[in-house]
Design brief:
By secondary structure, this protein is mainly β. The chain folds into two domains: about 120 residues; about 140 residues, Sandwich (Immunoglobulin-like), CATH 2.60.40. Helix content is about 0%, strand content about 55%. The protein has one helix and 24 strands. The strands form six sheets. Strands 14, 17, 18, 22, 23 and 24 form a six-stranded mixed β-sheet that branches. Strands 6, 7, 11, 12 and 13 form a five-stranded antiparallel β-sheet that branches.
Length: about 290
Protein backbone atom coordinates (compact mmCIF):
# COMPACT_ATOMS: atom_id res chain seq x y z
CA UNK A 1 0.00 0.00 0.00
CA UNK A 2 1.20 3.51 -0.78
CA UNK A 3 2.09 5.38 2.39
CA UNK A 4 -0.35 8.07 3.48
CA UNK A 5 0.73 11.49 2.30
CA UNK A 6 2.78 10.03 -0.56
CA UNK A 7 3.25 12.38 -3.51
CA UNK A 8 3.21 9.50 -6.01
CA UNK A 9 0.61 10.15 -8.68
CA UNK A 10 0.01 9.71 -12.37
CA UNK A 11 -1.42 12.36 -14.67
CA UNK A 12 -3.32 11.52 -17.85
CA UNK A 13 -3.68 14.48 -20.21
CA UNK A 14 -6.28 14.38 -22.96
CA UNK A 15 -5.22 17.24 -25.21
CA UNK A 16 -6.66 18.94 -28.32
CA UNK A 17 -6.16 17.25 -31.70
CA UNK A 18 -6.89 13.87 -30.03
CA UNK A 19 -3.50 13.64 -28.32
CA UNK A 20 -2.98 11.71 -25.06
CA UNK A 21 0.00 12.12 -22.71
CA UNK A 22 0.79 10.09 -19.59
CA UNK A 23 3.05 11.46 -16.85
CA UNK A 24 4.12 8.93 -14.21
CA UNK A 25 3.15 5.30 -13.69
CA UNK A 26 -0.39 4.45 -12.58
CA UNK A 27 0.04 2.61 -9.27
CA UNK A 28 -2.32 0.74 -6.98
CA UNK A 29 -3.22 2.88 -3.95
CA UNK A 30 -1.86 6.08 -5.52
CA UNK A 31 -3.61 9.07 -7.06
CA UNK A 32 -4.67 9.23 -10.70
CA UNK A 33 -5.33 12.72 -12.08
CA UNK A 34 -7.14 13.28 -15.38
CA UNK A 35 -6.81 16.56 -17.26
CA UNK A 36 -9.18 17.00 -20.19
CA UNK A 37 -9.29 19.72 -22.85
CA UNK A 38 -12.94 20.73 -23.42
CA UNK A 39 -12.14 21.36 -27.10
CA UNK A 40 -12.15 17.58 -27.59
CA UNK A 41 -15.94 17.58 -27.09
CA UNK A 42 -17.66 20.58 -28.69
CA UNK A 43 -21.08 19.02 -29.34
CA UNK A 44 -24.15 19.51 -27.13
CA UNK A 45 -23.15 22.99 -25.93
CA UNK A 46 -26.39 24.83 -25.28
CA UNK A 47 -27.47 27.96 -23.49
CA UNK A 48 -30.82 28.63 -21.87
CA UNK A 49 -31.81 32.18 -20.99
CA UNK A 50 -28.16 33.17 -21.09
CA UNK A 51 -26.93 30.28 -18.91
CA UNK A 52 -24.47 27.62 -20.07
CA UNK A 53 -26.07 24.28 -19.19
CA UNK A 54 -23.75 21.69 -20.74
CA UNK A 55 -21.41 19.38 -18.83
CA UNK A 56 -18.42 17.08 -19.43
CA UNK A 57 -17.77 14.02 -17.24
CA UNK A 58 -14.89 11.57 -16.95
CA UNK A 59 -15.55 7.86 -16.40
CA UNK A 60 -12.98 5.37 -15.12
CA UNK A 61 -13.62 1.63 -14.90
CA UNK A 62 -11.07 -0.35 -12.87
CA UNK A 63 -10.50 -3.96 -13.89
CA UNK A 64 -10.90 -6.79 -13.02
CA UNK A 65 -13.81 -5.95 -10.64
CA UNK A 66 -15.39 -3.40 -12.99
CA UNK A 67 -15.81 -0.63 -10.41
CA UNK A 68 -16.78 2.63 -12.16
CA UNK A 69 -16.05 6.11 -10.84
CA UNK A 70 -16.95 9.37 -12.51
CA UNK A 71 -16.76 13.10 -11.96
CA UNK A 72 -17.05 16.49 -13.60
CA UNK A 73 -14.25 17.98 -15.67
CA UNK A 74 -15.73 21.50 -15.61
CA UNK A 75 -16.03 24.24 -13.03
CA UNK A 76 -18.84 26.76 -13.56
CA UNK A 77 -17.99 30.44 -13.94
CA UNK A 78 -20.89 32.29 -12.35
CA UNK A 79 -22.20 35.85 -12.27
CA UNK A 80 -23.11 37.57 -9.00
CA UNK A 81 -26.65 36.23 -9.25
CA UNK A 82 -25.36 32.67 -9.64
CA UNK A 83 -25.89 32.19 -13.38
CA UNK A 84 -23.34 29.96 -15.11
CA UNK A 85 -22.00 32.01 -18.03
CA UNK A 86 -18.91 29.91 -18.85
CA UNK A 87 -16.97 26.79 -17.85
CA UNK A 88 -13.34 26.34 -16.81
CA UNK A 89 -11.60 22.95 -17.06
CA UNK A 90 -10.70 21.23 -13.77
CA UNK A 91 -8.85 17.94 -13.19
CA UNK A 92 -10.64 14.82 -12.03
CA UNK A 93 -8.80 12.85 -9.35
CA UNK A 94 -9.36 9.30 -8.08
CA UNK A 95 -7.43 6.86 -5.90
CA UNK A 96 -6.52 3.69 -7.76
CA UNK A 97 -7.99 0.59 -6.04
CA UNK A 98 -5.57 -1.85 -4.44
CA UNK A 99 -6.71 -4.72 -6.67
CA UNK A 100 -6.72 -2.90 -10.04
CA UNK A 101 -4.66 -4.22 -12.95
CA UNK A 102 -6.03 -1.91 -15.67
CA UNK A 103 -8.07 1.28 -15.94
CA UNK A 104 -10.44 1.99 -18.83
CA UNK A 105 -11.51 5.61 -19.48
CA UNK A 106 -14.03 7.50 -21.57
CA UNK A 107 -15.67 10.94 -21.57
CA UNK A 108 -19.24 12.19 -21.94
CA UNK A 109 -20.73 15.60 -22.68
CA UNK A 110 -24.45 16.29 -22.50
CA UNK A 111 -27.26 18.78 -21.96
CA UNK A 112 -30.97 18.49 -21.48
CA UNK A 113 -33.45 21.31 -22.13
CA UNK A 114 -36.51 20.33 -24.16
CA UNK A 115 -34.62 17.29 -25.45
CA UNK A 116 -31.47 15.38 -24.67
CA UNK A 117 -28.08 15.71 -26.38
CA UNK A 118 -25.18 13.31 -25.70
CA UNK A 119 -21.71 13.00 -27.23
CA UNK A 120 -18.73 10.81 -26.34
CA UNK A 121 -14.94 10.74 -26.52
CA UNK A 122 -14.26 7.00 -26.43
CA UNK A 123 -11.86 6.11 -29.23
CA UNK A 124 -14.87 5.15 -31.37
CA UNK A 125 -16.23 2.90 -28.62
CA UNK A 126 -12.96 1.16 -27.74
CA UNK A 127 -12.20 3.53 -24.81
CA UNK A 128 -8.73 4.44 -23.48
CA UNK A 129 -6.90 1.63 -21.64
CA UNK A 130 -3.92 1.92 -19.27
CA UNK A 131 -2.02 -0.65 -17.22
CA UNK A 132 -1.81 -0.37 -13.44
CA UNK A 133 1.37 -1.34 -11.60
CA UNK A 134 2.78 -1.39 -8.08
CA UNK A 135 2.74 -4.05 -5.40
CA UNK A 136 0.78 -7.24 -5.98
CA UNK A 137 -3.00 -6.67 -6.01
CA UNK A 138 -4.85 -7.18 -2.72
CA UNK A 139 -7.41 -9.94 -3.24
CA UNK A 140 -9.60 -11.04 -0.30
CA UNK A 141 -9.78 -14.78 0.16
CA UNK A 142 -13.54 -14.67 0.83
CA UNK A 143 -15.01 -12.02 -1.48
CA UNK A 144 -18.73 -11.27 -1.51
CA UNK A 145 -20.30 -13.96 -3.66
CA UNK A 146 -22.77 -13.22 -6.46
CA UNK A 147 -26.30 -14.27 -5.52
CA UNK A 148 -27.50 -17.17 -7.66
CA UNK A 149 -30.34 -16.17 -9.95
CA UNK A 150 -29.68 -12.42 -9.79
CA UNK A 151 -30.09 -10.74 -13.18
CA UNK A 152 -27.34 -8.29 -14.27
CA UNK A 153 -29.10 -5.05 -15.23
CA UNK A 154 -27.33 -1.71 -14.65
CA UNK A 155 -30.24 -0.17 -16.58
CA UNK A 156 -32.47 -1.02 -13.59
CA UNK A 157 -30.13 -0.55 -10.62
CA UNK A 158 -26.79 1.16 -10.06
CA UNK A 159 -24.75 3.01 -7.44
CA UNK A 160 -24.73 6.81 -7.60
CA UNK A 161 -22.22 7.42 -4.80
CA UNK A 162 -20.52 5.54 -1.98
CA UNK A 163 -18.39 6.45 1.03
CA UNK A 164 -16.79 4.28 3.71
CA UNK A 165 -15.42 5.87 6.86
CA UNK A 166 -13.96 4.96 10.24
CA UNK A 167 -15.13 7.13 13.15
CA UNK A 168 -14.05 7.28 16.78
CA UNK A 169 -17.25 7.96 18.75
CA UNK A 170 -15.61 7.83 22.20
CA UNK A 171 -16.64 11.03 24.06
CA UNK A 172 -13.95 13.70 23.98
CA UNK A 173 -12.85 15.77 26.95
CA UNK A 174 -13.84 19.46 27.07
CA UNK A 175 -10.34 20.23 25.77
CA UNK A 176 -11.02 18.13 22.69
CA UNK A 177 -8.66 15.32 23.73
CA UNK A 178 -9.80 11.71 23.54
CA UNK A 179 -8.50 9.28 26.15
CA UNK A 180 -10.16 6.28 24.60
CA UNK A 181 -11.43 4.76 21.40
CA UNK A 182 -14.72 3.35 20.18
CA UNK A 183 -14.24 2.82 16.46
CA UNK A 184 -17.25 2.41 14.18
CA UNK A 185 -17.14 1.53 10.49
CA UNK A 186 -19.76 3.47 8.56
CA UNK A 187 -20.96 2.81 5.03
CA UNK A 188 -23.00 5.20 2.90
CA UNK A 189 -24.42 3.93 -0.40
CA UNK A 190 -26.87 5.85 -2.59
CA UNK A 191 -28.57 3.77 -5.27
CA UNK A 192 -30.76 4.51 -8.28
CA UNK A 193 -33.44 1.99 -9.24
CA UNK A 194 -35.93 2.09 -12.10
CA UNK A 195 -39.50 2.35 -10.84
CA UNK A 196 -40.75 -1.02 -12.14
CA UNK A 197 -43.37 -1.38 -9.38
CA UNK A 198 -44.36 0.34 -6.14
CA UNK A 199 -43.32 -2.56 -3.90
CA UNK A 200 -39.56 -3.06 -4.01
CA UNK A 201 -36.57 -3.96 -1.85
CA UNK A 202 -33.00 -2.71 -2.20
CA UNK A 203 -30.12 -4.14 -0.19
CA UNK A 204 -26.38 -4.80 -0.08
CA UNK A 205 -24.43 -7.89 0.92
CA UNK A 206 -21.35 -6.63 2.78
CA UNK A 207 -18.00 -8.12 3.82
CA UNK A 208 -15.43 -6.38 6.04
CA UNK A 209 -11.75 -7.42 5.86
CA UNK A 210 -8.63 -6.74 7.92
CA UNK A 211 -5.23 -5.59 6.63
CA UNK A 212 -4.37 -9.11 5.48
CA UNK A 213 -7.63 -9.31 3.50
CA UNK A 214 -9.08 -11.85 5.95
CA UNK A 215 -12.84 -11.71 6.54
CA UNK A 216 -13.79 -10.24 9.94
CA UNK A 217 -17.50 -9.49 9.50
CA UNK A 218 -20.36 -9.93 7.04
CA UNK A 219 -23.99 -8.93 6.82
CA UNK A 220 -26.92 -7.85 4.68
CA UNK A 221 -28.17 -4.27 5.03
CA UNK A 222 -31.37 -2.76 3.62
CA UNK A 223 -31.42 0.60 1.87
CA UNK A 224 -34.25 2.99 2.75
CA UNK A 225 -36.31 4.96 0.25
CA UNK A 226 -34.88 8.47 -0.08
CA UNK A 227 -37.10 10.00 -2.74
CA UNK A 228 -38.18 10.05 -6.35
CA UNK A 229 -35.66 10.47 -9.16
CA UNK A 230 -37.70 12.16 -11.84
CA UNK A 231 -40.77 9.91 -11.68
CA UNK A 232 -39.33 6.97 -13.64
CA UNK A 233 -36.91 5.97 -10.87
CA UNK A 234 -36.38 6.05 -7.11
CA UNK A 235 -33.41 6.76 -4.87
CA UNK A 236 -32.48 4.48 -1.96
CA UNK A 237 -29.79 5.06 0.67
CA UNK A 238 -27.85 3.16 3.30
CA UNK A 239 -26.10 5.36 5.84
CA UNK A 240 -25.07 3.55 8.98
CA UNK A 241 -22.74 1.34 10.98
CA UNK A 242 -21.69 -2.00 9.52
CA UNK A 243 -18.94 -3.00 11.96
CA UNK A 244 -17.70 -2.05 15.44
CA UNK A 245 -13.96 -2.03 15.88
CA UNK A 246 -11.69 -1.73 18.91
CA UNK A 247 -13.02 -0.26 22.16
CA UNK A 248 -10.37 1.15 24.51
CA UNK A 249 -10.91 3.03 27.77
CA UNK A 250 -8.32 3.97 30.41
CA UNK A 251 -7.29 0.63 31.90
CA UNK A 252 -9.35 -1.55 29.57
CA UNK A 253 -9.16 -2.66 25.93
CA UNK A 254 -11.55 -4.80 23.90
CA UNK A 255 -9.49 -5.62 20.81
CA UNK A 256 -11.18 -6.23 17.48
CA UNK A 257 -9.64 -6.76 14.04
CA UNK A 258 -8.60 -3.57 12.27
CA UNK A 259 -11.08 -3.08 9.39
CA UNK A 260 -9.19 -2.03 6.26
CA UNK A 261 -11.39 -3.07 3.35
CA UNK A 262 -15.11 -3.23 2.55
CA UNK A 263 -16.72 -5.12 -0.28
CA UNK A 264 -20.40 -5.14 -1.19
CA UNK A 265 -22.85 -6.16 -3.91
CA UNK A 266 -26.03 -4.21 -4.64
CA UNK A 267 -29.39 -5.92 -5.29
CA UNK A 268 -32.88 -4.78 -6.27
CA UNK A 269 -35.86 -7.08 -5.66
CA UNK A 270 -39.08 -6.34 -7.54
CA UNK A 271 -41.98 -8.44 -8.89
CA UNK A 272 -40.40 -11.70 -7.76
CA UNK A 273 -37.05 -11.10 -9.48
CA UNK A 274 -33.66 -9.89 -8.24
CA UNK A 275 -31.55 -7.48 -10.28
CA UNK A 276 -28.00 -6.24 -9.72
CA UNK A 277 -25.46 -3.90 -11.30
CA UNK A 278 -23.15 -6.99 -11.21
CA UNK A 279 -20.22 -4.97 -9.79
CA UNK A 280 -18.24 -6.11 -6.75
CA UNK A 281 -17.84 -2.71 -5.10
CA UNK A 282 -14.79 -2.15 -2.89
CA UNK A 283 -13.76 0.66 -0.55
CA UNK A 284 -10.58 1.03 1.50
CA UNK A 285 -10.17 2.30 5.06
CA UNK A 286 -7.27 3.83 7.04
CA UNK A 287 -5.52 2.00 9.86
CA UNK A 288 -7.07 2.22 13.33
CA UNK A 289 -4.08 4.23 14.54
CA UNK A 290 -4.81 6.95 11.98
CA UNK A 291 -8.49 7.14 13.03
CA UNK A 292 -7.98 7.61 16.78
Amino acid sequence: MIAEGSSLKAVLQFLPDWLQVQEGAILRGAELVVEFAPDRLTHCRRTWRGAEIWEIEAFARFHPRGEITHGSLLEPVRTENGMTVAHAPVPYSVTVPQDATQVEMWFHTYNQISGRCDAWDSRFGENYWYDVGGKAPVEPRQPVQYRAGAIPSPELVNVLDQIASKKNVFPAKPTGEQEGADLRILLSVRAWVKNVAFAKDVWVDVHVFDGDAALVNSGTFSLSWEGSAGGAADLFRLNGEIYRGVVATPGSVSPRPDARLIQYRLYYGVEGRIFTDSILHQLELPEDAVSH
